[in-house]
């Protein structure tokens, strides 16, 4: 399959559902990344595959000069509205991470929280992240660990409906994988940190309904599957999330571990 149809598929998946309702749960990861990168007033910041703007908002709260990009215009409109509600501002621009429309060395900080990992061409996406980052600039990425519930969910969806698999997200979730993508000698001061966010819901049934209705990869797979396939997907989701929840109280509390990678562009 050529790059263009794959990129179109990525756009279709993330335009489906209502990602804002899921993505808002990841605000703590974006805030942590902005703090660890030391975003300062006036830093030129690019949020790549920014969705509804979690990382862009985190950088704007620290008075960065921010551009938020994504391939889905509807998600960027939500990002703009969120910023407006908070009295913040940043530029939004539709852009494919594999072909960023910015000159070389345009930004002091480049970030992506659970976004670039779904790029149609991971190697090309990694090259673009570094191309637009100035030498000495800071790079920050987050991705689900393959063995965490988030990573296992992506693998589960790909197993049930391979046609809906987008990018190579689990490759970005290990130190070896992300360093292989960024390239030897291209970055320095590389630091990998495992962090966790809790994914909560009043019940397992509520959690399933949220992912089925709101989370693009699950939503699109559900639409494509026949009744038997839908039942199997729901059963596997229930087993995964149910076995991952912390006990000791009502509702569902699933600790979801992700890899945070920060680095400085060499040169």
Automatic annotation (TrEMBL):
Residues 46-139 form the Methyltransferase type domain. CDD domains: AdoMet_MTases. One of its GO terms (biological process) is methylation. Pfam families: Methyltransf_11. Transmembrane segments: none annotated. GO terms for molecular function: S-adenosylmethionine-dependent methyltransferase activity. It comes from the Bacteria. InterPro entries: Methyltransf_11, Methyltransf_Superfamily, SAM-dependent_MTases_sf. SUPFAM superfamilies: S-adenosyl-L-methionine-dependent methyltransferases (SSF53335). The keyword Transcription regulation does not apply. Keywords: Methyltransferase, Transferase. This is Methyltransferase domain-containing protein.
